[in-house]
Amino acid sequence: MAARTSGAATSSAAIPKLSWNAVRPAPVVLISGPEDVLADRATSMLRDALRAEDPALEVSDLDAASAPRGELLTLASPSLFGEARLIRVSGVEHAGDDFLLDALSYIEAPADDTTLLLRHRSGQRGKKLLDAIRAGRGRGVEVVCAELKKDSEKQDFAQAEFRAAGRRIAPGALRALVSAFSDDLGELSAACRQLIADAPGDIDERTVSRYYGGRVETTAFEVADTAIAGRHGEALVALRHALESGADPVPIVGAFAMKIRTMAKVQGAGRAPAASLGLAPWQVDRARRDLAGWDDAGLARVIEALAATDAAVKGAERDPVFALERLVGLIAARGR
Fold first, then answer.
1. Which CATH number do you get for residue 290?
2. What is the pLDDT of residues 277-328, one digit of tens each?
3. Do 48 and 123 fall within a single domain?
4. CA-closest candidate to residue 132, choices 142, 123, 146, 122
5. How many independent structural domains does the chain possess?
6. For residue 36, what are the domain limits?
7. Residue 246 φ/ψ region, left for φ over 0, alpha for ψ in the -120 to 50 degree band, beta for the rest
8. Is 336 inside a domain boundary?
9. Are 231 and 310 part of one and the same domain?
10. Residues 95, 178 within the same domain
11. 250 shares a domain with 158
12. Which residues contact 172 (CB under 8 A, 6 or more apart)?
């Protein structure tokens, strides 16, 4: 991989500001803004771009809040074999003094073939570091991950999800999908990925209707969220609404499975950072909220029930609706 020349910028011109899907390698990449889903996508795209340049890319993760003095400089120091490096730093908005001192020193002369990615959501903590980067020190770029408020912006996001997977989605299907998940970008992303994984061929309006019922008010994830929150009666009503408006039982089970698997992963990992779990920070935060009232035994019973229900809705039992209702009851009771 070609070296990325280090050193501070000689002019005070502002660094380039890029959208989340235009991220590109630079010695320093500042990912700013509150939208964690976009930040996660930008991070993944940057890693993939660097790995395409050098398959031996070495990736390291650092928590700015707890990093001891010298840790950043140690990670950036030259290796024996000279592999390209990506250092991903989370929680810069909570950075400790030790990390800030190291980072301010580092951006004066970034290491060759090393990309330092800094994730800063919001707030004034670390302002001196951000101001220095934005003034050009470190020859960086800033990737702005602002909240997506317009449907057109969310459609662009969903379209990019399918395009990145080499899949096509019809304009009407795209509008229907965004309409169904307009309130939660994380769930819109999860829905895109479920369609990419489970639905063969091009995605049309019939496919979206089959998976998500053609109904904006009730989606598979709404059913799952309500049951996980312990609201059994509401979850059954939501399930009936979804089924009566054409939702297929298979993706409803898939929505439960996606959320329960994430909860189990977070439960088993304790306070491990999101990156080590292969999850975005917003996914870990949501899973921790969902885990209130759950224990390991309950999660284990629900995971076993999910496997049985998945088989039931795919033909192993005569009444898939009853199997779904049974699953909803178990999840609403936290597996007890």
1. 1.20.272.10
2. 777 777 788 888 888 888 899 999 999 999 999 899 888 888 888 989 999 9
3. yes
4. 142
5. 3
6. 17-144
7. left
8. yes
9. yes
10. no
11. no
12. 204, 205
- Tell me: do 229 and 250 sit in the same domain: yes
CB count within 10 Å of CB 69 equals 12
Q: Residues near 251 by Cβ (< 8 Å), separated by ≥ 6? A: 194, 198, 210, 211, 212, 220
| Structure tokens given for 43 | 């991070």
Q: Is 250 in the same domain as 264?
A: yes
Q: Please give the Cα distance from 228 to 96 (Å, whole number).
A: 36
What's the CATH number where 207 sits? Answer: 1.10.8
225 shares its domain with 175: no
Give domain status of residue 95, yes or no.
Answer: yes
pTM confidence score: 0.60
Answer for the pair 178, 212: CB distance below 8 angstroms, yes or no. no
Are 223 and 324 within 8 A, CB to CB? no
- Please write the tens of the pLDDT for every residue from 48-60: 999 999 999 999 9
Indicate whether 311 belongs to any domain.
yes
The answer to whether the beta carbons of residues 225 and 260 sit under 8 Å apart is no
Same domain for 185 and 264? no
What is the average pLDDT across 156-176? 89
